[in-house]
Write a structure and sequence with these properties.
The chain has about 220 residues and is of the alpha/beta class. It has nine helices and five strands. A five-stranded parallel beta sheet has the order 2-1-3-4-5, sandwiched between helices. The relative contact order is 0.09. The C terminus is likely disordered.
Length: about 220
């Protein structure tokens, strides 16, 4: 197995379904793991970080919906595609409300399944990139001293360097030095870059309102 390949897990008590899905997905150059029960899947800790989970709804023991609930309790972010030969609208609604991305009825169209899997993998990879970016920003923010963080907060509030210097009771030159170190530690060329980093930590949209440009000049 190539660990760099996207990893798809298939959970279905029907051996024929597992085999057919594995053959289909491996043709797409995906890494595939199959499980005959929800319990078997949940026992495999590594599988719970897979890129896509294809999950049958009705199985002996834990149902697909119960597996989904347990994953949610573990704060799993694995995209789930439910498949079922006995599904109904209330069941589909419950699954979607709990975070499933789709609910396909057996027999399903292979092309539809493939399109969904590709979209789910892309979404998963984007989420991982975002999480890494947030972690990187948090690490850079944590490298700031207490005074540098105070200066940063004042700059983000739109205060000019002269105002910050007066409020802190220190020289303008010292504020400029603090500000320069903040920019260097955060790897930012302009304050707008820092603002977007802080938005990432806050989980807000990257296109939110920025401080007034004149306030960022450092005057």
């Amino acid at each position: 197995m190539n660990p760099s390949k996207p990893h798809v897990c298939v959970v279905d008590d029907d051996a024929m379904v597992r085999t057919s899905l594995q053959m289909l997905l491996e043709v797409l150059d995906l890494r595939v793991s199959t499980y005959d029960s929800g319990a078997a899947y949940l026992d495999d800790i590594r599988a719970q970080n897979c890129d896509v989970l294809i999950l049958d709804v009705r199985m002996p023991g834990l149902s697909g919906l119960q597996v989904q609930q347990l994953l949610n309790e573990r704060h799993s972010e694995v995209p789930i595609l439910f498949i079922s030969g006995h599904g109904n609208i209330p069941m589909a609604v419950r699954a979607m409300r709990a975070g499933a991305l789709d609910f396909l009825q057996k027999p399903f169209n292979d092309h539809e399944l493939i399109d969904w899997i590709h979209a789910a993998i892309a979404r998963r990879e984007a989420a991982r990139r975002h999480a890494q970016e947030v972690a990187d920003v948090r690490q850079r923010m944590d490298s700031l001293t207490a005074r540098e963080r105070e200066v940063l907060d004042a700059v983000m509030a739109g205060k000019a360097n002269k105002v910050i210097a007066a409020e802190f009771g220190i020289s303008l030159k010292t504020i400029e030095q603090h500000r320069g170190r903040v920019m260097a530690k955060l790897g930012a060329r302009k304050v707008a870059d820092v603002f977007r980093q802080m938005q990432l930590l806050d989980g807000t949209a990257a296109n939110g309102s920025l401080p007034v440009a004149s306030d960022l000049s450092g005057a």
